[in-house]
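**Backbone shape codes:**
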Amino acid sequence: MTGRLPDDIGEIEMKIRTISAAYREIRIMDPNTAISEKQIRSLCHDGTIPYIKSGVRYLVNMDTLEEYFADKTRFRTIA
């Protein structure tokens, strides 16, 4: 078994990372990011971001994490 989905389902690429690896990847994309590893961990713990627990590791989908931070409705404007 290759760990891939059958071809008739279509090509689905999931970027699953540990919280630490997700944070490192965000830092590579944006070295000046204000997002912290602790913030990602908190989003998982409070259920805001879905995750998979594998042993002691929390695994997150990078696409889901990026969508969360890209959602402009989360930003507040100051009047």
The mean pLDDT is 86. The radius of gyration is 15 Å.
